[in-house]
Design goal:
Layout: H1 2-29, H2 32-39, H3 43-49, H4 53-72, H5 74-77, H6 82-93, H7 96-99, H8 104-114, H9 118-145, H10 153-174, H11 177-194, H12 198-212
Helix pairs in contact: 1-2, 1-8, 2-3, 4-9, 6-9, 6-11, 6-12, 8-9, 9-10, 10-11, 11-12
């Protein structure tokens, strides 16, 4: 047990430094040698735990994506009303503040590799599936309680995640938090209106307005 615990600590420390090197120097500059130099160890120390750069990226992607869900999920877990829970979730997913939880340079460096590496691609698919599972229950409840006809819960969830992804991309290009916040609020209101959760959205909005002032 002690050896496994030590290995976990060492891997976590290496991933911490890899994240920082990626954020500062990009994918091209994030070599095993630079990570080792930052840590004050020999490159062989890194290679003992991660044989290749792809192994490092695989582990970092899992850590980042699972960490994101773990970071934000407590913010709505105690909300009992499905409509209010969905409004809280959308407020988080569509906000510039939450988009900034993951360094954009790191996220897109890893995402770029997902286009050519199956394991990394599967890790991104897992994030998508995790988000979809979180959203599906409240969406289905809102649809069942509303008057909307012909709208599939899975399609609504796919739309929410697509909008979230687009806002993340716009954050990278525009770097304009007020514009992104306005677009996020409109996206949230549109989804809640479609699902007839408008009352929950308006009550949640009033609470958020206090936080933004």
């Amino acid at each position: 047990m002690g050896r496994k615990s030590l290995a976990r600590e060492r891997k976590s420390e290496i991933l911490d430094h890899f994240y920082q090197v990626l954020a500062e120097e990009g994918l091209e500059g994030a070599s095993l040698a630079k990570i080792a130099d930052r840590m004050g160890v020999y490159p062989s120390h890194i290679a003992h735990y991660f044989k290749t750069k792809q192994d490092l990226v695989n582990a970092l992607v899992v850590r980042i994506l699972t960490g994101f869900v773990r970071e934000v999920s407590p913010k709505w877990r105690s909300v009992e009303s499905p409509g209010e829970r969905l409004a809280r979730m959308l407020g988080l997913f569509f906000s510039p503040e939450e988009m900034g939880l993951i360094d954009r340079r790191v996220f897109y460096a890893c995402f770029y590799l997902s286009l050519s590496h199956d394991t990394i691609h599967r890790n991104y698919q897992e994030l998508y599936d995790n988000l979809a599972r979180l959203l599906r229950g409240p969406v289905e409840t809102c649809l069942a309680g509303g008057k909307t006809g012909g709208v599939d819960a899975g399609t609504v969830v796919d739309m929410i995640i697509a909008v979230m992804s687009g806002l993340v991309m716009n954050q990278q290009i525009l770097n304009d938090s007020p514009r992104l916040a306005a677009a996020g609020r409109l996206a949230k209101e549109t989804v809640l209106g479609l699902l007839h959760c408008a009352e929950a959205g308006s009550s949640d909005r009033s609470g958020q307005g206090e936080n933004h002032d």
